[in-house]
Amino acid sequence: MPRKMFVIFGVSNILWMVFAVSQAFKVDIFPNESKIFTQIGDSVSLTCSATGSFSKDPEIHLSSPPEVGKPVTVTCSVPDVYPFERLEIEFLKGNRSMKVQEFLEPSEKKAQETKSLEVTFSPTDEDIGNALVCQATLHIYDDDSPPIERKTTKELEVYISPKDTAVSVNPSTRLQEGDSVTMTCTSAGLPAPWILWSKKLDSGNLQLLSENATLTLISMRAEDSGIYVCEGVNLVGKDRKEVKLIVQEKMFTVEISPGPQIAAQIGHSVVLTCDVRDCESPSFSWRTQIDSPLNGKVRSEGSKSTLTLSPVSFEHEHFYLCTVMCGQKKLEKGIQVKLYSFPSDPEIEMSGPLVSGNPVTVSCKVPNVYPFDRLEIELFKGESIMMNKIFLEDASKKALETKSLEMTFIPTTEDTANVLVCLARLPIDEMEFEPKQRQSTQTLYVNVAPRDTTILVSPSSILEEGSSVNMTCSSNGLPAPKILWSRQLSNGNLQPISENATLTFMSTKMEDSGIYVCEGINQAGISRKEVKLIIQVAPKDIQLTAFPSESVKEGDTVIISCICGNVPPTLIILKKKAETGYTVLKSTGGAYTIHRAQLEDAGVYQCESKNEVGSQLRSLTLDVKGRESNKDYFSPEFLVLYCASALILTAIGMVTYFARKANMTGSYSLVEAQRTKV
User: Fold this and answer.
1) What is the 3-state secondary structure (H, E, C) of 177-227?
2) What is residue 107's predicted lDDT score, i.e. its pLDDT?
3) Alpha-carbon Rg for the chain in angstroms
4) Contact 232, 187 (CB under 8 A)
5) 428: nearest Cα among 371, 478, 485, 378
6) Most distant CA atoms of the chain, gap in Å
7) Judging by DSSP bridges, how do beta strands 226-234 and 237-248 pair with one another?
8) CA torsion angle for 643, 646, 650, 652 (degrees, to 10)?
9) H/E element holding 650?
10) Domain 347-443 adopts which CATH fold?
11) Domain 160-248 has CATH 2.60.40.10
């Protein structure tokens, strides 16, 4: 390769670092190879072009609606522009240039920015319909390339504040009662003002009457006299004109009773009376101020007219006008009917019985009250206030409602005989009615749940059959608990048997044994105590047997068994009569086994069954016969007898065991009986 050849590389990368500072525009290099080769000494031409950095039209903003004669500032903004050192902004009003601005900041800052131009001027009538133009020009780097231009146009809407407001009155500003008047108002401005008619009150405030240019007042009254104000209003201002009307009173007088205002209780009757003086032949008419139906009965005679409202309901709560015509003269008097309802005393309710230590909620209710926006309820316990509540709901709601106060407290025995007082007030001063205060009282009786329930058994809870027993139950509480005696069944349920404090059995039977439950019951709760009654029976129905027989051979096995049918079981003692008395045998479950009976085993056997109540004896005589020879004797019959005796012994033991288990009152032993006595 010749040495004069020179390689140019990375040209596009270097130029990209210079121009590609934002993703909002694009840089192109020509030629677009990453490397080019050229002869040393020759010339090389590289072309760089950038696009996309002037993509949005200018924006025009006004500081306020343009008004003739008042300065307004117009801002022309060019958003997201780069490079801004070549930017030029021009503002025009119509075809006239108002301001031109170039931005010559140094170009080292690589970022898109929003540039703006501000112009302040005072619009004139000639500006109406003119256009505001914001034109932005961006001169690119190549002087041979044409500049980029963007332009925004906005029509200039010029406003004129209302002026030259004028009022015409027909027929006159001085009127007689009953006359009508029409007042017409005009006002100039851009856009055309809308008209508002108001009346100036004594406080200086304006009471809006109409939004029409013409205001007509009919059947004028003296109180309609005053200053009426017409206002022309548009977006940029207002202008007013005042006119004073004078309405002269008639000479005759009208009185309305019971007064300018009456408080009527809902459901009652009200009579409104209109009385005329100084007029020989008056004519009457009644109406409401809002021209709603009267819903009443009118009766006119002579110089009086009455309106009867019966029964009064919410539809009667109006301002009523009595109009009197005397010849060509007319006079009106008004009366306002206000309703109330406070018919009954408060109602005190408890969430449950008062129990010492248990929270209870007390409610104080005021039924069918109206209006309730000023209702106040207070709850006292004795002289101490517990809670108060004021109801500040929307008074525009017309309905009879029940309002209540609720609170929870924990009563104690000290509260007994104290008094709860529920006091309700409806203090509407501008309404005359009675009563404005009602109250209810309730004396507190605090209950104490049953406790310390005890049972006294006389003479004892363990008795002989046929004996008498008294079981007396007592329980403390307030009010005094009611006593309920029950017997506990085998399934655990209780079977009521008496409501007397003392439960008496005159002649007990074994079936009377069991668990007896006493319950002390009042409104506050239940307390219980139980006692176990045991009825003992003397032993009876003893059976003393010898198996297989009372007569056996020497060498046989004999089982002597004693069974007693008593419930509960008794103590079984087996004995054998000897020369010196009876010898106690070691028996198991009332059974004594003699293996290989000998002649000396013969004799009298005795069974004694006894308990604390008594005892019973049974005897049998066992005969043991000798064998023919003294040699050992063994036969298959003896083997069978021996095996059978073992099985029988087991069966007798099981029978004895289950007989004991079948006892309704449980097993019995002298040892346990002695412990019970201790």
Assistant:
1) CCCCEEEEEEEEEECCCEEEEEEECCCCCEEEEECCCEEEECCCCHHHCEE
2) 60
3) 60
4) yes
5) 371
6) 169
7) antiparallel
8) 100
9) helix 636-661
10) Immunoglobulin-like (2.60.40)
11) yes
pLDDT of residue 186: 95
With vertex at residue 232, the alpha carbon angle to CA 231 and CA 238, rounded to the nearest 5 degrees, is: 90
Check residue 665 and report its DSSP letter: T
Q: What is the pLDDT of residue 68?
A: 84
- Answer yes or no: are the C-beta atoms of 648 and 559 closer than 8 Å: yes
- What is the rounded CA–CA span in Å between residue 484 and residue 481? 9
Give the model's pLDDT for residue 257.
92
Quickly count: other Cβ atoms within 10 Å of residue 111's Cβ: 11
Residue 13's φ and ψ, nearest 5 degrees, are: -65, -40
Token pair of 577 as six digits: 């009569």
Contact 292, 319 (CB under 8 A): no
Cβ distance 596 to 553 under 8 Å?
Answer: no
Top-tier CATH class for 253-340? mainly beta
Q: Say which DSSP state 59 is in.
A: E
Distance CA 96, CA 153 (A): 13
Q: Which helix (H) or strand (E) holds 14?
A: helix 11-19
What pLDDT shows up at residue 539? 81
What is the length of the chain? 678
Three-class DSSP category at 16: helix
Identify the pLDDT of residue 82. Answer: 81
**pLDDT value, residue 644:** 53
CATH 2.60.40.10 residue ranges of the chain are: 59-155, 160-248, 253-340, 347-443, 448-536, 542-661
User: Positive or negative, the Cα torsion across 127, 130, 132, 136?
Assistant: negative
CB 435, CB 342: distance < 8 Å? yes
Q: How far is CA 153 from CA 135, 379, 593, in A?
A: 9, 75, 135
> If you search the block for the tokens 């006004």, which residue do you land on?
62
Q: Does an H or E element contain 106, and which?
A: none
Which is nearest to 198 in space by CA: 233, 163, 249?
233
Provide the pLDDT for residue 30.
57
Residue 5 neighbours by CB under 8 Å, 6+ apart: 37, 38, 39, 40
Q: What CATH code would you report for 59-155?
A: 2.60.40.10
Provide the residue type at 163 as one letter: K
Residue 26 CA to residue 31 CA, distance in Å, equals 16
Could you tell me if 568 and 587 are in contact, meaning their C-beta atoms sit under 8 angstroms apart? no
Class of domain 542-661 (CATH, top level)? mainly beta
Which pTM value belongs to this model?
Answer: 0.42
pLDDT at position 659 is: 44
Q: List, in order, residues 6 or more apart from 571 with CB less than 8 Å away.
A: 609, 610, 611, 669, 670
Is residue 190 within 8 Å of 162, Cβ to Cβ? Answer: no
Residue segments in the chain with a per-residue pLDDT below the cut of 50 = 1-25, 52, 630-635, 655-678
Is domain 448-536 given the CATH code 3.40.50.300 in the classification? no
The reported pLDDT for the residue numbered 124 is: 84
pLDDT of residue 589: 82
Name the 3-class secondary structure at 609: strand
